[in-house]
Amino acid sequence: GLDLASTDDITALAVCTGNDELGWGFEMHYFMPERSVERRLDKDENSVYLGFKDDPHVHLTPGNVTDYNVIRRLISGHYIEDGEVKYDERNLMEKYLVKGVAYDRWNSLNLIRDLEGDGVPCDPFGQGFASMSFPSKEFEKCVLQGKVCHGGDEVLRWMMGNVSLRYDASGNIKPDKSKSGDKIDGVVAAIMAIGEALTFVEDENSDFEFFMAVIGNNV
Q1: Is the pLDDT confidence value at 168 over 50?
Q2: Do β-strands 58-61 and 23-33 pair in parallel, antiparallel, or remain unpaired?
Q3: CA-CA distances (angstroms) from residue 152 to 55, 102, 134?
Q4: Are the C-beta atoms of 25 and 16 separated by less than 8 Å?
Q5: Reduced to 3 states, what is the DSSP secondary structure of residue 38?
Q6: How far is CA 86 from CA 47, 100, 162, 175, 179, in A?
Q7: φ and ψ at 122, to 5 degrees?
Q8: CA–CA distance, 128 with 39 (Å, rounded to integer)
Q9: Which burial class, exposed, middle or buried, applies to 9 when counting CB atoms under 10 A from its CB (0-12, 13-18, 19+)?
């Protein structure tokens, strides 16, 4: 699930494994420009952003805007350097059998075009109640049942504390940040990833078991 933010904000990527019976495992990645972190720390030197510089899953790019080339490199391994396309074998397509990347259509055209050209299967994912409600309810259920494994991700913990639920007249739900006013991008990406995963029917649970072994059993 790829929640692609504006170029000066947090973009979140959630790698999701598991199913609706076992629960869901997540490997999270966050991308943002260094200057955004500095601006936050200028306002509050004790901000949660202080830990971002040392978090291995937070990818800071130089300057004022997020370098989407870094996102592409992590997902597909392909990236541009000195005007040439290069390849980094330490990428998610090599690590996982990626069935699909759910993405928000907003501001994603160039990056998605590059990823699809790299052979990454990408699927647009709406941000309204129609698309978000079912995976949001699945995510909420598994959180309450202790069936969400995220490897002790402190950024995701913080974002979970910023989330409230928005309801429509039919009882549909989706994540909302209006009450806290702070970031929830990782939660949105995780829900999108669940929504994408639920479109595939799996007969084996080995992927989830492998993921649990890799990142630990923190719930």
Answers
A1: yes
A2: parallel
A3: 12, 24, 25
A4: yes
A5: helix
A6: 36, 23, 38, 37, 43
A7: -120, 140
A8: 31
A9: middle
Distance separating alpha carbons of residues 209 and 17, to the nearest angstrom: 9
Radius of gyration of the chain (CA): 17
What element of type H or E holds 113?
helix 109-117
Mean pLDDT of 19-38: 93
Residue ranges of E strands in 43-156: 58-61, 78-81, 84-87, 101-103, 122-124, 148-149
What is the CB neighbour count within 10 angstroms for residue 108? Answer: 18
Express each pLDDT in 75-124 by its tens digit: 999 999 999 999 999 999 999 999 999 998 887 889 999 999 999 999 99
Tokens of 215: 């990142």
Evaluate if residue 204 carries a pLDDT over 70. no
